[in-house]
Automatic annotation (TrEMBL):
The keyword ATP-binding belongs to this UniProt entry's keyword annotation: no
HTH lysR-type domain span: 1-59
Family note: Belongs to the LysR transcriptional regulatory family.
Domain of life: Bacteria
Organism lineage: Bacteria, Pseudomonadati, Pseudomonadota, Betaproteobacteria, Burkholderiales
Name the UniProt record assigns to this protein: LysR family transcriptional regulator
Matches recorded under Pfam families: HTH_1, LysR_substrate
Keyword terms, alphabetized: DNA-binding, Transcription, Transcription regulation
GO molecular function: DNA binding; DNA-binding transcription factor activity
Alphabetical list of PROSITE patterns matching this protein: HTH_LYSR
Length: 322
């Protein structure tokens, strides 16, 4: 029995919930995958999976084995990767997909830096507000804002997306600032029309332990988050902006955060990619490059201390009479 192959097949079957999926992942036949796992069970004298016609799940012994071998396989995989690096070049086509809202304000500066460093990589970037299926669309790496993708790929969370109500100092000087969610109806507000659905996005707030949604009438409505940010910066209205658009402007004083006791999170910015064990060096290099620069990057969100300061009571603002 090839123990390494059998253990690798077992680990992939556990991760994918399917021996057939593990076989495809390993480039072997389903019969070979099933035989490898059965031989491993025979060698260990324990059953590793509960099997039904529709489902594959780990037994208690299988879970213990998985917990034990995963770190060792990771070390082995890393060692083999290092051995190959001297023979591989970071070169070739690299296809990346991402929503338009993350394009210029978040991702593009890092894409430029990567391209300048690895000039033998042909970077093909597709900005699309529809969720990209990596296999169907033949992409190597995807980015997503909001809830992480479910199934079929590895997803790594990079930074949280906070939804922050903001206004420019000029707007507040002219119109005052709302102190409650209800007072928003007395103000000009911006709106974001979702490109993938055509619907006006609701504003969401944390009230106690609950998340509540409000339809806020829009005095100006756009289908681009960067344009909405510009509208708020220009004093055209109050907007609820993603922290990746707002955080830098808040720190510089160009935007003032409002109703901070109601800030909520709309998922995270996530990088996701396929499970392929034969993943090319250029793809691995790009993933490591982006994770190193973006994971926990405070340019894109307010940390807990900033949120606490922003929630401190303010002096009542004087509204200039017209």
């Amino acid at each position: 029995m090839n123990e390494i192959r059998a253990i690798t097949t077992f680990v992939r079957a556990a991760a994918l919930g399917s021996l057939r999926g593990a076989a495809v992942d390993q480039g072997i036949s389903p019969q070979a995958a099933s035989h490898a796992v059965m031989q491993l069970e025979k060698e260990l004298g324990v059953r590793l999976f509960h099997r039904t016609t529709r489902k594959l799940s780990l037994t208690e012994e299988g879970q213990r084995l998985l917990d034990s071998v995963e770190p060792a396989l990771a070390v082995l995989s890393s060692a083999l990767d290092e051995a190959r690096r001297s023979k591989e070049d970071v070169a070739g086509m690299l296809r990346v997909s991402a929503p338009r809202s993350l394009g210029l304000p978040v991702l593009w500066p890092y894409f430029e830096e990567f391209q300048q460093r690895y000039q033998n990589v042909q970077l093909e970037v597709q900005f699309d507000d529809q969720f990209t299926d990596l296999v169907t669309d033949r992409s190597d790496v995807g980015f997503r804002g909001g809830p992480p993708p479910s199934g079929g790929s590895i997803a790594r969370r990079l930074v949280p997306i906070q939804l922050i109500v903001c206004a420019s100092p000029d707007y507040i000087e002219r119109n005052g600032a709302p102190r409650t969610i209800e007072e928003l109806s007395e103000h000009r507000c911006t709106g974001y029309r979702r490109a993938n659905t055509g619907k006006l996005a609701q504003w969401q707030f944390r009230v106690g332990d609950e998340i509540v949604y409000r339809d806020v009438p829009a005095a100006i409505c756009v289908n681009d988050t960067e344009l909405e940010t510009q509208a708020v910066l220009s004093g055209l209205g109050i907007g609820q902006l993603g922290s990746f658009n707002a955080a830098t402007h808040i720190r510089s004083g160009r935007l003032v955060p409002l109703l901070m006791q109601h800030v909520t999170e709309y998922g995270t910015i996530t990088i996701y990619y396929k499970h392929r064990t034969e993943q090319s060096l250029r793809v691995k290099t790009f993933i490591d490059f982006m994770v190193e620069r973006m994971a926990g990057n405070r340019n894109f969100f307010l940390d807990s201390s900033e949120l606490r300061v922003a929630q401190l009571p303010e002096k009542k603002r004087v509204v200039r009479r017209r």
